[in-house]
Amino acid sequence: MSKNRVQQLMQSALDGDLDERAQAELNRIMDDDPSQVAEYDAQKQVDDLLRLPPMERAPGRLGVAIMARIGQVLADQQRRKGMSSELSEAQLRVAVQLVTVTTLPLLAGAGYLLLNAHSNPQAIERLLAPALALLVMVIDAMTIMLEQAEALYEDDPQLALALLTLIPSTLLLMAQEILQGAENGQL
Amino acid sequence: MSDPTISQWVHAASAGDQDAFAEIVYTFQDAVYNLCYRMLNNRVEAEDAAQEVFLKAYGNLHRYDHNRSFKTWILSIASNHCIDQIRKRRMQYVSIDEPIPATLSLASDDPLPEQASLSRERSEAIQALLNQLEPDYRLAVVLRYWYDYSYAEIAAEMDTTESAIKSRLFRARKMLAEKAVSQADQPPRNSLTEG
Fold first, then answer.
1. What does the pLDDT look like over B44-99, one tens digit per residue?
2. Chain B neighbors of A11, CB-CB under 8 A
3. What is the distance between the alpha carbons of residues A124 and A122, in angstroms, rounded to a whole number?
4. How far is the C-alpha of B119 from the C-alpha of B38, rounded, in Å?
5. Domain positions in chain B
6. A57 has a chain B CB within 8 A of its CB
7. What is the assigned CATH class of domain B1-92?
8. Which of A43, A66, A160, B91 could form a disulfide with A153 if both were Cys (CB 3.0 to 4.6 A apart)?
9. Which residues are CB-contacts of A33 (< 8 A; sequence separation ≥ 6)?
10. How far is B131 from chain A (nearest CA, A)?
11. Whole-model pTM above 0.95?
12. Domain B98-188, what fold?
């Protein structure tokens, strides 16, 4: 008889799940081996002891303490959210100013190219198209990115800021490409 | 308490209704606190643990599966939290000399006094015995005897098989019996107790 089988029978006996055949099998095992009787008795006594065990009641203050902590957590979250919102607004203002500061020289540069081209009719032909393209693209790109940033701002201020920070470098890259193209055309 | 009512509370609490969560707290605080006390063997720690359990539950209400019993769900959070707490204690000294009250001596032929069966003394005596078990064994015993979990439920909670749980409970009872007998055979003496 395996140890597992004996354990299984004893467990079932404690749970009151033994059928007649299994009960007879357990009785036979215990008749043959008195140490199994001691084993079963010990199991039964501990099982009886633990049946209907006393419940420890929660201290009266526990519920109040839990609700107070939840209130505190919610208040902290609210405060952090408010701070985050104020911070994001400040960051947004700085980012828009940064975009303006970066793009102004670009626009001024394009204007300067156009003005200088007046003295050179051939140059104006070569530069007018890229300069106009540059202006149009700068304005279009800024409009699109600002609109997207504005739309994103409500849902995710941080992502909107990230998008705004991309505007200057995007515009510079575009300008570089166009001017490079114009230069190549000149050559 | 019907499950639909609890489900309504959970929905309301998820939507920010603190009164609904307060109902949940008052309904389950005894069950959670008792589990924490039985696992941690310290009332102050049990109270702190119960608070943490309810905070975790509050923060995870959106993850609660309404097809499942809320009590099982929150007791699962409590079980995991207590096991973590016990692991954090690490090298904490657990006395093997802690005397088991004579009322629980299995070597005695005297019947257990009826009044003691419901008293705080009995509760603490059982706790002293329970505290002799390893956390995994203790949790299985607590879920089985205090919360009337089936073997399958305990197995699911402890991520093991039913037969493993039966075997664990068998060994746990055997250990408890041996501890009780050995304590009964020893004269009482001063000892350190688990904090």
1. 999 999 999 999 999 999 999 989 899 999 999 999 999 999 988 755 544 444 44
2. 166, 169-170
3. 5
4. 16
5. 1-92, 98-188
6. yes
7. mainly alpha
8. A160
9. none
10. 14
11. no
12. Arc Repressor Mutant, subunit A (1.10.10)
